[in-house]
Each structure stands twice: as structure tokens, then as C-alpha cells.
Specification:
210 residues; mainly alpha; Four Helix Bundle (Hemerythrin (Met), subunit A); two-stranded antiparallel sheet; 5 strands
Length: 210
């Protein structure tokens, strides 16, 4: 199927944002913005779970229970992501790379399912990763699923309200084209946050921090 012209720039933006973040986490090189390959080491488990300030939200072993100000651990498996029902704590807790990457993977996986799948997945179905390598693989799979869902959308779908029935946002009340834009900005801004955390972790190690 031919990709609608209105979708093409958003699809290209998604591909760019995904590739840049994936390379930033996995290495061995990344595009730093100048088109040059910059060496970068792979995300380690310690870095993935690093809590730079007190009171962080992260992913945790389910047996250990939720972190500060969280009331539950979202997701499936032995690990869960810190969460709380509305109204969320204010000011918002600072979140780790693990939390942010889990959030992105869950969002992409569930939105893909509620666009082009069975429309049945919930947050309780998404398996939370306790280590960096598994989390990166899950993120890659989630991005692939969302991209596949986008490629199935024609011009009519882009204008259809509720084409994506993702239950944790405004998707059932929004045209699909707006949801595609929203997903891109989620990937861009959380990707930038993850990149900054990687920079801080590296600078801390170079300064002899703990």
C-alpha cells in the first residue's frame, strides 16, 4: 500500500528518532547531530537502573514493592514499573532510564495492538524488563510493531477518530493523524531525556562519582 503523503514526514521523523535513540543506547556509534559517527558504549544494567536523585521512580523487582510515592508496580513479570493512580504525585518523581524506556516500549506495543492488532492488550500484559539488554530488545520490537501499524493506515484511517483505541490516552476521541504526531513527540522528548541521563552518568563516572 502506498504511504499517504501526509503520513510520510511523520513516518520519516519516527524512523529518525527511533534510530537515533536506539543507537544512542546500544552503540557502537551514534549520530551526534552533525552526521558523524560518534563512539558510544552499550547501556549497562547499572546505568539502566541508576537513580541520580533520591525518590526516583524506576523498575523494581515485584517482590520488593513499589518505590517512593508509588502505589503499584505496573506491568507483567517479576519486575514492575513504579506507578500511581490519578492524581499522580506532585511534583512528578524523577524517573530512571529504565522507567522511561519501559514507558516508551509499553506505549508503542499497546498502541500498535490497539491500532492493527486484537485491541486487547493492557498495561498488565506488558512485560517489564529488569536488565538493559532485554529492555532494548523489547523497545526494538515495540518500535517495529508501531511502524508496521502505521504502514497499514490509508488516508481515510488518518482522519478516522478512534482508529487507534489505545485506552490510556485521548486516542478514542482523536483522528489517527494526531495520534501519530503525539507518539513522535513522546519518542523525541523521552529519547532526549534518556540521552541526557547517559551523558550525566558518563560525566559522573569520569569525575569519580558513585
Amino acid at each position: 500500500m502506498t504511504v499517504p503523503s501526509r503520513l510520510l514526514p511523520l513516518l520519516e521523523q519516527f524512523d529518525f528518532a527511533y534510530r537515533r535513540l536506539a543507537d544512542r543506547m546500544a552503540g557502537p556509534v551514534m549520530d551526534s547531530g552533525d552526521g558523524m559517527d560518534t563512539p558510544v558504549g552499550p547501556l549497562t544494567d547499572d546505568e539502566y537502573l541508576w537513580e541520580p536523585v533520591p525518590g526516583c521512580w524506576s523498575v523494581r523487582r515485584r517482590a520488593d514493592g513499589p518505590g517512593p510515592r508509588a502505589t503499584s508496580l505496573a506491568g507483567a513479570g517479576d519486575w514492575g514499573r513504579d506507578a500511581a493512580a490519578y492524581p499522580h504525585p506532585w511534583p512528578p518523581p524523577f524517573t530512571t532510564i529504565a522507567w522511561r524506556l519501559s514507558h516508551l516500549g509499553e506505549m508503542l506495543t499497546l498502541r500498535a495492538d490497539h491500532t492493527a492488532g486484537d485491541r486487547r492488550l493492557t498495561r498488565d500484559d506488558y512485560r517489564i524488563s529488569g536488565d538493559a539488554a532485554t529492555a532494548l530488545t523489547a523497545f526494538d520490537s515495540a518500535a517495529e510493531a508501531w511502524r508496521k501499524a502505521l504502514l497499514g493506515a490509508d488516508d481515510t484511517a488518518l482522519d478516522t477518530v478512534g482508529y487507534c483505541a489505545y485506552p490510556y490516552g485521548g486516542d478514542p476521541e482523536e483522528p489517527f493523524l494526531g495520534i501519530v504526531w503525539w507518539v513522535n513527540q513522546e519518542l523525541l522528548h523521552h529519547g532526549a531525556e534518556i540521552a541526557l541521563l547517559r551523558d550525566l552518568y558518563r560525566a559522573r563516572a569520569q569525575a569519580g562519582g558513585h
